[in-house]
Backbone:
């Protein structure tokens, strides 16, 4: 009986540390070596998505179609339109190592659970990656490639993270933060937007005269990771005015490169996690992340009595999300029910 063909995968050469792509009996260099695993993973995902696939005349039965084909088609059709295609690439690279040469008929609950055990990552990571697999399979069915839909078993979602910062904790973190990290924290606390939205914010989307920040360009499609726009509070407006004066004081050449509100060493910042973690460590405060800052930004006004619908509108978040994750902090939470119960017997 012939040996089962291994999926297309990365292999690091022991002699020079270079990453190569192994596809059956074929080896292809990625051009990346020691310390460049993420770049090599992108190269692998690109190789998979660009690999020639046989043309099909109609919908295929799940046993006739490999998961690798489905993932490659999904990356080709959707990747260019996503706001963060690199995240999709990383997920597809991870999925392909296990699922690539399996057929769509092999996508069952037992295989999904085995993937989670072999992958050995946090449940949230496994859930996100299997979510990409589900999206790819749905896309294949929607495009008439798969004859019927296939359900992917996802691990249970983790418990809701309750961590939010006190004003004293925020002050301490700000005191120990580098200038670009401090700027990020201020923007996060006054807008409640995701880290990616803040890091991608350019001066062209800040209207100080009208007091408006647009977190996406005009005509840019909205995604599930909602961004929208926000009316600037007076405290943030003072910070923005000061930062704008610093921006305009630069030489014309330097100003052309000073495009984003959060910059480090003359370049936009791709990730702020390390900078926040360093500031929190120096402040001796645990559990500070970009998500916790966003959670804090929404929790504070809710605690002061901001209404559910108003919070949803300002933070561009669905009322259902506000109710599920934040509303229990509100003084209005269950207040009407409590009042009605207290009236009993009067």
Residues:
């Amino acid at each position: 009986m012939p040996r089962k063909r291994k999926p297309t995968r990365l292999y690091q050469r022991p002699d020079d540390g270079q990453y190569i792509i192994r596809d059956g009996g074929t080896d292809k260099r990625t051009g990346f070596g020691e310390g460049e695993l993420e770049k090599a993973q992108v190269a692998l995902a690109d190789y998979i998505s660009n690999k020639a696939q046989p043309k099909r005349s109609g919908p295929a039965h799940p046993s006739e179609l490999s998961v690798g084909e489905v993932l490659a088609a999904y990356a080709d059709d959707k990747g260019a339109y996503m706001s963060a295609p690199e995240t999709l690439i990383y997920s597809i690279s991870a999925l392909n190592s296990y699922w690539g040469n399996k057929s769509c008929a092999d996508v069952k609950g037992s295989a999904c659970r085995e993937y989670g055990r072999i992958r050995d990552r946090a449940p949230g990571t496994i859930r996100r990656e299997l979510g990409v697999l589900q999206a790819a399979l749905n896309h294949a069915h929607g495009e008439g490639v798969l004859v019927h839909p296939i359900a992917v078993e996802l691990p249970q979602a983790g418990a809701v993270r309750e961590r939010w910062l006190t004003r004293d904790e925020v002050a301490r973190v700000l005191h120990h933060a580098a200038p670009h990290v401090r700027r990020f924290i201020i923007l996060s606390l006054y807008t409640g937007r995701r880290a990616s939205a803040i890091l991608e914010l350019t001066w062209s989307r800040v209207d100080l005269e009208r007091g408006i920040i647009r977190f996406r360009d005009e005509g840019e499609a909205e995604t599930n990771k909602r961004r929208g726009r926000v009316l600037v509070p007076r405290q943030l407006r003072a910070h923005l005015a000061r930062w704008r004066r610093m921006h305009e004081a630069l030489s014309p050449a330097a100003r052309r490169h000073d495009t984003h509100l959060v910059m480090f060493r003359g370049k936009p910042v791709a990730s702020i996690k390390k900078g926040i973690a360093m500031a929190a460590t120096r402040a001796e405060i645990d559990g500070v992340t970009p998500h916790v800052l966003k959670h804090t930004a929404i929790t504070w006004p809710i605690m002061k009595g901001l209404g559910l619908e108003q919070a949803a509108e300002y933070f561009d978040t669905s009322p259902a999300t506000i109710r599920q994750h934040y509303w229990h902090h509100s003084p209005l939470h269950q207040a009407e029910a409590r009042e009605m119960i207290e009236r009993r017997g009067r």
About this structure: Residues 200 and 260 are 7 Å apart (CA to CA). The domain at 167-299 is CATH 1.10.443.10 (hpI Integrase; Chain A).
